[in-house]
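Memo to structure team: turn this sequence into structure tokens by end of day. - J.P.
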Amino acid sequence: MKAEAGLGLSNGIDLLAEHLGGRALLCSDDFFAEMGNLLKPGRGVFIADKYTERGKWMDGWESRRKREEGHDWCILRLGVPGVISVLDIDTNHFLGNHPSFASVEACYAPDAAEDAASLEALTWEPMLSPVSLQRGSQNLFSTYYSKPVTHLKLHIYPDGGVARFRAYGRPTPLWKPTEDDKRYPLQEGEVDLAAMRNGGEGLLCSDMFFGTMSNLIAPGRARVMGEGWETRRSRRPGYDWIIVKLGAIGKISFVVVDTNHFKGNYPESFSLHGIHAPQLGITDLQNNEEMPWQEVLSRRKLQAHHEHMFRDELQAKGEFSHIKLKIYPDGGVSRLRVYGHR
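Reply from structure team:
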């Protein structure tokens, strides 16, 4: 079923996103443009006079013109397993060379190896029946596949180019330690309750002019300043803030506030607060100052380009369903980690 434009943004996060760890693993052919481009940020660019030794350079996945029976396909692994509600098969800049049709299959195989033989042996189920594609467009489709997914197989008929492939949905956390977690002195059973990969969600913030709020709970350390959450220069009294819904209700025991890459624009200080209100939605949280937030960390100084870790300093520990980070008066924070026990 064709979805209305923009639906993906209100139906979760892009579980295939490269910055979440999404990867293109295997394809039938990517002669003109590599399959890994499918997961890159943005909708792709077009450079009129750029060519390679194989032909026109294109910012997407593009197979050669098929001269035999069959069609092309690409297997991708989600960065975060989850239930997908919206697919975006974006043919941006592919005008005379886009596929006429596409379909998508899904499987759940969290422990699958990534060699060609293992991937070709996966058992696939239909997620999206063959649909027609418009050229140079975001082709958005609702799905009614209710099972968790780890891998997708994009089929294009018969060949051609797709700029980007997005799979919007809600994470199904594995609650297993990741490379992120191994960097910290964690205790037994502690998990990152706020992490995007574990279902954490940036709900509201006072401002995100320079960097979106979802960056704050993305995996890995930010590679550049633009991969953090940053507000504009405030010209008013007070502070900026962000509210994150935790992926699971839990008690907080260890917090990391990372100002990586923020050197002349990091906040002077911060404080952290929590609330147990799992039934509240975004509209309920609009007037959040009137709510009974508990102080997890009282206001304290921040340093430039530095990972700040707190354990013994924690005051209230929950149970909490949401946390609120206040930064004084404004600026940028690259990552927030909120470890605890579910």
